[in-house]
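fyi for ur records
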Amino acid sequence: MRNVLLTLSAAAMLASCSEPCPPSRYTEQSPEIDKVIASNDAYCKRDWDALKAVYAADAKIYHNSAESVTLDETMMQSMETAKYFSSETITTEDAEMVVTDSTETWVNFWGVWKGVVAETGKEYSSPMHFTMRFENGLITEEHGYWDGSEMTKDFMAMQASAADSTAATATK
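which gave:
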C-alpha cells in the first residue's frame, strides 16, 4: 500500500507541473552549425557567392576588432587576403549552438586555420574562434578571433625586403 501511495504521489507531482520542460538551449547539431561549417569550406574553396549567401545583407562583422565592418568590406578583405595563399583549410575542433534567455540563437565555432603562402611555400597555422548570431537562418552578427601576428610579421618583412630590392635597383 505504501508503494502505491508513493507512486501515486510522484505521478501527481509530475502531472501538476504547470510549465512544460524548456526546450534544449544547447546543441551540437543544427542547421546553423552546418551553415557555419559549409561557409568555412566555401571560404577555403574561394566560393565567394556561397560564403556571402549565409549572411544577412546588413550583418555586423567584428574580426579581431571592437569595431564592426560590413559584409561587403569583409568579402573584399577576404578576397584580397586569399590571393597570397596557394591553399587554406579550416579544421573544425568543436561547434555548438546556444539559445539565450532572450531567445537569440548563437553558434560558437572553434577550429584551426592553416594556410600556405603562395610566394614562399611557408605554412601558417592558427587556432580560431568565431561566434555568430543567427536570425531567420542567416548570420546577422559575427565575432572572429585568431592570432595572425607571426604571419603579419613575416609579410611585413617580405614587403620591406621587396622595397629594399626595388630601391637598390632604382639607384643603379
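The CA atoms of residues 126 and 149 lie 10 Å apart. thats all i got for now
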